[in-house]
Amino acid sequence: MAKVELAPFRPWDDFFPGPDRFAKPDFADLAKWNNRVINNLLYYQTNYFLVAIVFFLIVGFLNPIGMVLGGAVVSLVFVGSVWAAENKSVVKNFKKNNPMLFVIAVLGASYMLLSLCEGVMVFVFGISFPLLIILAHASLRLRNMKNKLENRIEGVGLKKTPMGIILDALDQQEERINKIQDYLETKLNR
After folding, report:
1. Which domain holds residue 174?
2. Per-residue pLDDT tens over the stretch 156-167
3. Where do transmembrane segments lie in this chain (predicted)?
4. In total, how many domains does the chain have?
5. Cα gap 136→158, rounded to integer Å
6. Domain annotation covers residue 16
7. Assigned domain for 11 exists
8. For residue 169, what pLDDT is reported?
9. Is 3 contained in some domain?
10. Backbone angles phi, psi at 16, to 5 degrees
């Protein structure tokens, strides 16, 4: 197994270049859109973590108790859902067959628990808003050659990153790895 490495910070002009490197995703081809999002999440993960930390700090400064409560609830729901998916066959099958619905269910459960604690606004601005910004960037940012190369290296198991571990826990990389293996097999069979 590969050692976990932190991906390098991507320069601002690579992370947020001119408008020519952004495009609306093809909503008709969900597999292609999902591939773009996953690959951008892996390539720009350090930048995304920095964006999330900045939002966490701003909201944490304005409402520290609410942010700690929100972070604890979301962390517990995430850890509980991953544990349930590993130990309960019904949840494991649901997660395998509907990975995106599983992620939505985890976020929905977090939202429901926070609404009981009256921490919804902290959840929305401290946790959901950074996730929305990250998802929007990952959906709209076109990939470059360096992005594609880095993701292939991680896909074949030569390198493991924190975002890769998170995506594996949510079963968001299985299809991508299968596509890479199919691609490599077709190249080797020629």
Report:
1. 29-189
2. 454 577 777 777
3. 41-59, 65-85, 97-114, 120-140
4. 1
5. 28
6. no
7. no
8. 67
9. no
10. -135, 70
